[in-house]
Amino acid sequence: MSLTLHVDGDRWRAHLRDTVAHHPGLVPVTKGNGYGLGLHRLARRAQWLGVDTVAAGTYPELAELHQRFDGSLLVLQPWRPGHGEHQDPAALGVDPDRVVHTVGRLEDLDALADQGRATGRPVRVVLERLTSMLRHGFSGDDLAEAVRRSRRGGLRVEGVALHLPLPSARATLSTRSSRSSHGTEVERLLAEPAVADLASGGGPARQVWVSHLTEAELEVLALKFPDLVLRPRVGTGLWLGDRGALQVTAEVLDAHPVERGDTYGYRGRSAPRRGTLLVVSGGTSHGIGLEAPTGEATLKARAASLARGGLDAAGFVRSPYSVGGKQRLFAEPPHMQVSMLFIPHGAPVPAVGEEIEVRVRYTATSFDAVEIS
Ligand SMILES: *Cc1c(COP(=O)(O)O)cnc(C)c1O
């Protein structure tokens, strides 16, 4: 009864190795559902790739990572006071010296510095600079102040972090120029005196942790800022960057022929025409959701479609499941762990036990099984 992610192991591993080889300083991002693959698997892969750091999304995720990967653990979610042991590496069973905290407010920086001075173990931090994302981070003035305060002891600053919008958003902004407007945003932010001030100390403070920059943009930055060490944080482009290596299947669990007017399902719906109800694995608990309605929106079009026995007019909604190369309709909204599809008469009906293809968002899907060849 499985929704399964199949991974072509050789192809996937080759892509991982290539990506790391083409992005010096790459930091794999291992967060959330592990991009569909599971955090534990990503941690082991990162160890195999030989990188020095992985990025977790949140503190509790460290528990999944720290025994499978033995390098530094950067936490992307900014540290905040008052979260107590939920943000305390030691309380989570993680060696505090391996954890790099992200900080984006002066009061948080002060609190961590106090902690570092009190324990005599400097706390490792990255200073996040606010970008056009407007998610977290210091303003320009506050970053300059943070760099000054970080010299008072208790902290070991490991550079500046910049989180940028996704490339697709940028592509629409930059029409003809090969360089996006966000490439120039990074350049502007890195040219702020606070960054050079921090980097002047040398060592790990020269690092700049960035996301969502193209290879070309990274090359330009490396030339323009030779004193900085770029650390691209990459999740999707690494783990899911070669979609051809990934395939998702659901199992056909049952198939029931129906005539027009037969009732079925939780809502006692009646079949709009002759066909087969296909019960397949995958439901709301896996993250399987309704797709967009199937076009033909006007009332007139719907009436015409209904007269033809059209399934869209019957309120059927497109599903992410494909049978015979065609995306099929849900016979009703997905259940918790299974879904019901309607296969119209005449279309091929797969046998019980057969696997059919499903299109999913990997970061929003929990698979029953991940099979890596
Ligand atoms: C999730 C995340 C990334 C990685 O994003 P992808 O699009 O998966 O590559 C990088 N930086 C930060 C701060 C993130 O939260």
UniProtKB/TrEMBL annotation:
One Pfam family of this chain: Ala_racemase_N
Coiled-coil stretches: none
Boundaries of every Alanine racemase N-terminal domain copy: 8-167
Protein name: Alanine racemase
Species of origin: Nocardioides aurantiacus
